[in-house]
Write the structure tokens for this entry.
Amino acid sequence: MLQAPVQRELMRLGHSRIVPANTTLGRQGEPTSIVSLLLEGRVTRTRVEPNGVPVMLPLRYPGDLVGELSWLDHGTHSATIVARDRSTLLVFPHRDLEMFMQQRPSVLLTYTRMIADSLHEAEAHHSDAGAYDVERRLGRVLLRQVERYPRKLDEHYVVELRQKELAMLIGARETTVQKALRCPPLRELVRPSRGRILLCDVRRLSAFAELNDADGRFSLRDL
């Protein structure tokens, strides 16, 4: 996530674009010549694997870059990018961004660190698939969404994603996710609603999903 001073500098470089929910911002395999900074909303990225299975990559949230790898290799979109909500983006042509980076090496370093963070996040999702059962993978992905995009409905944290999307995020079938949400222990910790999941007990869910720190304490920041 870009820090506020860097964001302010970039605001003078790019142009703002506001898009409604469900707007396709780029399709897998298409060439692109822009990078965007997400200011408001959420962005999903879905990639179809060679075997035809769609996989959802970690979502992008305010302060994240969208299409950041394309600037490095001047290549194509590696996934289809869709605005999950009404979103505001700051758009930069590759050429303008490259000139800016040449003038501001410190910003280039920040950009490189952000790319490293996104790769670590993708690696964590990949590792979860081999290390945890479906129930714990589901718990972990729900908690990560809340950590990045904390929203509450009444007294509960809420993740506004459909069960199909959650299934794609953890690499499972939608029916498997539906079953996991209906059975213990998840049915005691979360509550499905229309198009969203309510987290009834974040601390117990964190313990179940093994997202506590080394001392066994709740460790997600700001929750």
